[in-house]
Specification:
25% strand; binds zinc ion; 2 domains; Aminopeptidase; alpha/beta; six-stranded mixed beta sheet
Length: 415
């Protein structure tokens, strides 16, 4: 259910003149009291390995999350995720209002079994370190402890809060994206808790994410002895090289579409004309029409061959869709910016090149929820051994989510 822009504007104004002003301090106190408990939760979560597909670790984390959700008063359901395993957890809290809000993030990481033992959670100079500390166990902890803060404030003016924790985001969410899409259809707003970057010195939320497609180029030639009869061969590597140079300009700078060729393979032995060569490329885009355009252009371009007698095939597989620029995400970002201002802090609304599950929560039709991404902790070096989050970001981020839920619960009723 999508907010009408008018209703949203009115309710923002109402929010700022109603009882909210007096209670900002109460909220701040409540979230400050959650800072240490959040860091403890984060330590517990980070110290259990839960790389995508590592079923022992995933089920250990699942048990911790289930326990925490139930302690918050949530009904919890589990849905097995195909392909990589693990369960998606869906927790539901019933309130007294009529607005439905979904909070979602993944609990798998990119790190292998043993990483947590090697580099357990630790805090040094205002930075918390450990595998997945930002991406996205920090986001998991922000969700749980914002709900703790709301509970301590006796706040239940929402209709239903749905919490979704999925186990396979780092591999593209093959076993959870359908569920995310389905659950999000009934929401007024969906908040997603990927981390955000500390690099620029300004906190941010994300309103637009790029989509991802995977490009494949395959050339079949003919093998022959490179000394005895090279003329009888059809060199697949030469043809592949020619095609890659021709295909170098499939991107579109105006639309911010990129296609980078990142992997090549070909040939077997130095004295054999290679009969087979392949390449893989990474395509990122905002505009959903770009899939067709790139596919059509590439197919036309690859008709121009250099090595006669070779076969060339170009394929483009669809990955995560984009979260396109849309007014509802922009409205949520503006609401988040106002809330940050209550703390005297600035918040930017940015677009990012990475794809996230926020795209699966987005519905292109008029009934979809408003979606906002990157409400997790602030940090950097994600997916590396130096991954960190700023401990200073815990309180502002808890405050942001707690106040967002309060504001969204008090929106004027939907049309
Ligand atoms: Zn992530």
């Amino acid at each position: 259910m999508r907010f009408s822009i008018l209703a949203m504007g009115l309710s923002c104004a109402m929010g700022s003149v109603s009882a909210q002003a007096a209670s900002h301090q109460d909220v701040q106190k409540a979230v400050e009291q959650q800072q240490q408990p959040l860091l403890q939760t984060l330590e517990t979560l980070v110290n259990v390995d839960s790389g995508t597909g590592y079923s022992t670790g995933l089920s250990d984390v699942e048990a911790l999350l289930t326990k925490h959700l139930k302690a918050l008063g949530a009904e919890v359901e589990t849905y097995p995720a195909k392909t990589y395993g693990g369960n998606t957890l869906v927790g539901r809290l019933q309130g007294d209002g009529d607005r439905n809000i979904m909070l979602m993030i993944h609990y798998d990481t990119v790190f292998n079994e043993g990483a947590a033992k090697q580099r357990p959670f630790h805090i040094e100079d205002g930075r918390a370190y450990g595998p997945g500390v930002g991406d996205a166990k920090g986001g998991v902890a922000v969700i749980l402890h914002s709900l703790e803060a709301l509970k301590s404030l006796d706040f239940d003016d929402y209709g239903q809060v749905t919490v979704v924790f999925n186990p396979d985001e780092e591999k593209g969410s093959p076993g959870s994206h359908d569920l995310i899409h389905k659950l999000s259809a009934d929401q007024d707003a969906v908040l997603v808790f990927e981390p955000t970057f500390a690099d620029e010195g300004v906190d941010a939320v994300t309103v637009v994410t790029k989509g991802i497609n995977y490009a494949f180029l395959e050339v079949k030639g003919r093998a022959s002895h490179a000394g005895g009869a090279p003329e009888k061969g059809r060199n697949a590597i030469m043809e592949l090289s020619h095609q890659l140079l021709q295909l170098d300009e499939l991107g579109d700078p105006d639309k911010k579409t990129t296609l980078n060729w990142t992997v090549v393979e070909g040939g077997t032995k130095r004295n054999i004309i290679p009969e087979h060569a392949t390449a893989e490329g990474d395509m990122r885009y905002f505009d959903s029409g770009e899939y067709e355009r790139v596919l059509n252009e590439a197919q036309k371009i690859t008709e121009h061959q250099r090595v006669e007698g070779t076969e060339v095939e170009f394929r483009l597989e669809k990955g995560r869709p984009p979260l396109p620029a849309n007014p509802e995400s922009q409205m949520l970002a503006e609401q988040a910016q106002k809330i940050y201002q209550e703390l005297g802090l600035n918040l930017q609304a940015v677009e990012i090149g990475g794809g996230t599950d926020a795209a699966y929560a987005y519905h292109a039709d008029a009934d979809g929820p408003a979606v906002l991404e990157s409400l997790g902790l602030v940090g950097g070096r994600y997916h590396s051994d130096e991954e960190f989050v700023l401990t200073d970001s815990v309180v502002p981020r808890l405050y942001l989510t707690t106040r967002m839920i309060m504001e969204l619960s008090h929106e004027a009723s939907r049309d």
